[in-house]
Design brief:
Strands 2, 3, 4, 5, 6, 7, 8, 10, 11 and 12 form a 10-stranded mixed sheet that branches. This protein starts with a strand and ends with a helix. The protein is of the alpha/beta class. Helices cover about 30% and strands about 20% of the residues. The model has no long low-confidence stretch (mean pLDDT about 95).
Length: about 325
């Protein structure tokens, strides 16, 4: 199969819609990461997504819809605070988990009773979702457990020959996957941290909990069970209070004739002038936006990526550290 990358135009969107309606799958940009999109009502399309990614069969998919889609046709909205969350954070990087009405096929939710739904803010993605006007399930468009793609070329690197089309919507600005929030109970629970933080949610709902996945729990969200986001090279992760160990690890790798790179925030990078660096940026937003891009850059030039943890795990840094631990820990 030939894989082509096309800029988002009315013609390429029409082509993507035809592929999707015929049960095929395509690469689709969002503001967080690129997704591997298929018709969520079509079991054959969902099967193709799992096969293309090599994704575990118990890892459910998120349904994506346009901003004017009637969510009540897909899910039960039982908590009044949901409408406040929709108003505050959508379109945007917030996924909400509801009780499903069964419109999205059971294969997409891995036989579970819940459905995760998101309204992306990426304009090109909205054009596609509005044109097809049905729930499109889309996990990240990479091989399972590899680093998530934030450019069309990242998708091509993993999906060449597996899908016919990748819609190029530029580099994703968010950089890490959406926050996943269980809204089936009176107090919302974060299943996966992201750019919509606990503090932001609490400003709307009053209360918010962070759920801890336990062995035996039914999986309601992607990204909670497996090692994810890993580059193809070796990795290591140290805290900000372990910079001497970072330097020692760097020198050890170098002495072995290999190429090390240190990946860290700018305020840490300044302490390692003259060494190979993957700079993530200054602010939490910059660091989140650059994380996967630098991991994917690093796997092409480094034998070992030595990552330095964030200064804390509050706000957006909670989501960044979740990805850092799974990719480099």
């Amino acid at each position: 199969m030939e894989t082509v990358i096309k800029q988002i135009t009315s013609e390429s969107v029409a082509t993507a819609c035809k592929i999707l309606l015929d049960g095929g799958i395509v690469g689709m940009p969002t503001e967080t990461v690129y997704g591997l999109a298929g018709d969520g009502t079509n079991p054959d399309a969902v099967k193709r997504i799992f096969e293309a990614k090599g994704r575990p069969s118990d890892n459910p998919l998120i349904a994506h819809v346009h901003k004017d889609y009637d969510l009540s046709t897909l899910v039960q909205i039982n908590q009044p605070y949901v409408y406040d969350l929709i108003k505050a954070f959508t379109p945007g990087p917030l996924t909400m988990v509801f009780i499903s009405k069964g419109v999205v096929c059971s294969q997409a939710v891995c036989g579970g009773e819940t459905l995760a739904v998101r309204i992306p803010s990426h304009q090109g993605c909205q054009e596609l979702l509005r044109a097809i006007n049905r729930p499109i399930v889309a996990p990240s468009a990479n091989l399972s457990k590899h680093t998530s793609p934030v450019t069309a070329m990242h998708v091509y690197d993993d999906m060449k020959g597996k899908i016919p089309l990748i819609l190029d919507g530029g580099k994703c600005q968010g950089g890490i996957e959406s926050t996943v929030l269980d809204v089936t109970e009176s107090v919302p629970r974060i299943l996966r941290a992201g750019l919509v933080t606990k503090e932001m949610i609490e400003s709307v709902t009053g209360r918010c909990e962070i759920a801890m996945h336990r062995d035996g729990d039914k999986v309601r969200s992607p990204g909670v069970k497996y090692k994810h986001y890993r580059p193809k090279c070796e990795t290591a992760l140290y805290g900000e209070d372990q910079l001497d160990q970072v330097y020692a690890h760097y020198e050890k790798v170098k002495s072995q004739g290999k190429t090390p790179y240190i990946m860290c925030a700018d305020h840490i990078a300044n302490k390692f002038d003259g060494l190979n660096l993957l700079r993530l940026g200054k602010t939490a937003e910059e660091i989140a936006s650059n994380l996967y891009d630098k991991l994917l850059e690093g796997e092409k030039i480094a034998d070992v990526i030595i990552a330095v943890a964030m200064p804390n795990e509050e706000g957006i840094f909670l989501g960044v550290m979740n990805r850092l631990k799974k990719s480099c820990g």
